[in-house]
Design a protein that fits this description.
Layout: H1 3-21, E1 26-34, E2 44-47, E3 52-57, E4 62-67, E5 72-77, E6 83-89, E7 94-99, E8 104-109, E9 115-120, E10 128-130, E11 136-141, E12 145-150, E13 155-160, E14 168-171, E15 174-179, E16 184-189, E17 195-200, E18 205-213, E19 218-225, E20 227-233, E21 239-244, E22 249-255, E23 260-265, E24 269-277, E25 280-288, E26 295-299, E27 304-309, E28 317-324
Antiparallel strand pairs: 1-28, 2-3, 3-4, 4-5, 6-7, 7-8, 8-9, 10-11, 11-12, 12-13, 14-15, 15-16, 16-17, 18-19, 19-20, 20-21, 22-23, 23-24, 24-25, 26-27, 27-28
Length: 325
């Protein structure tokens, strides 16, 4: 081997070592054991005022209430048929839980966790979102609808859709809804509840998770077949960027503090992207997790990303806590 070739090999090794020493943009800083939770875990919500997490333990038929300051379980709300969506409303101090098993929205007192009311929606009650003022609660369900409630749980309106809504987000007076069975994104006027547009998704199939960057007017959508991250213009629906991503994703979050995206993939990894500009993105790291861990919650007020991990290989379920750097 020539001296020049040897120098080239040594340089490549040196570069690899430098890359290996580069700190991860996400650091695992803790775990919250959930020893009594079995089966699949779905979505999470936060009470940022009293440091609580609410975990929809779908397979366990419960919502787990967690003290995020002490990393411990406060209580468990049992007897829920496949809870999927969960949301905390501070103004009324109520917890909204959507159960896919019986298509019912249940509303609890968030202090005592006593049931206040149950509202039968239809099949597959799923994701829940709050508007910016927390005066309206939106619940996706059935073969195509969003039900609208006030903060106390009074039903206000019904927004028909062409297919079952998966993840949806609200911004600037609009509602953006993933309709994977329709291969599209529906755009709704949040003031009138009327449709504004429907954008076809041609890039890939199964557009489930969604996140927004309202400042830069960008929508982030993850498709599962094939696994693709799409960046769209919020006004026109034009696809501006497309990148490979983690497979079997069910959650994506935008971190405005660090200008990053976190895609949680059920294949067992979190893919992290840097936002260089509104139209330019690159994958900067991958965090190995556990197969089946595909939901979580990013809480910017706490600078924390929480990952829901179901029980696996003799290990109990847990919530993993990551701090972005």
């Amino acid at each position: 081997m020539s001296r020049l070739a040897l120098r080239g090999i040594l340089f490549l090794v040196f570069c690899a070592l430098l890359a290996a020493q580069k700190p991860s943009p996400l650091k695992l800083i803790g775990k919250i054991p959930l020893p009594n939770v079995h089966g699949r875990i779905d979505h999470l919500a936060a009470d940022i005022y009293e440091s609580r997490l609410f975990v929809a333990a779908l397979g366990n038929g419960s919502v787990e209430v967690i003290d995020a300051a002490k990393n411990s379980v406060i209580t468990s709300i049992p007897g829920l048929p496949e809870p999927q969506g969960v949301a905390y409303v501070k103004s009324s101090n109520r917890l909204f839980v959507a159960s896919g098993g019986d298509g019912t929205l249940r509303i609890f007192d968030a202090r005592t966790f006593k049931l206040i009311s149950s509202i039968r929606l239809g099949t597959d009650a799923d994701n829940i979102r709050l508007d910016e003022t927390q005066t309206h609660v939106y619940v996706g369900y059935s073969d195509g609808a969003l039900a609208v409630f006030d903060s106390l749980g009074k039903r206000l309106a019904e927004i028909p859709l062409k297919a079952h809504p998966e993840s949806f987000q609200l911004a600037s007076g609009r509602i953006y809804v993933n309709l994977p069975n329709q291969k599209s994104i529906a755009v709704i006027d949040a003031n009138t509840d009327k449709p504004l547009a429907e954008w076809p998704v041609h890039e890939a199939l199964e557009n489930f998770p969604m996140a927004l960057d309202e400042t830069n007017k960008r929508i982030f959508v993850v498709c599962r077949k094939p696994a693709r991250l799409l960046v769209l213009d919020m006004d026109s629906g034009l696809v501006l960027a497309r990148l490979p991503t983690a497979g079997d994703a069910d959650d994506i979050f935008y971190d405005p503090i660090h200008a990053r995206l976190y895609v949680i993939g059920g294949e067992g990894r979190i893919t992290i992207y840097a936002q260089h500009s509104p139209d330019s993105y690159s994958a900067i790291a991958e965090i190995a997790t556990v197969a089946g861990a595909r939901t979580g919650l990013f809480v910017p007020e706490w600078n924390r990303l929480f990952l829901a991990v179901r029980e696996f290989a003799g290990h109990p379920a847990e919530i993993r806590i990551y701090q972005p750097y």
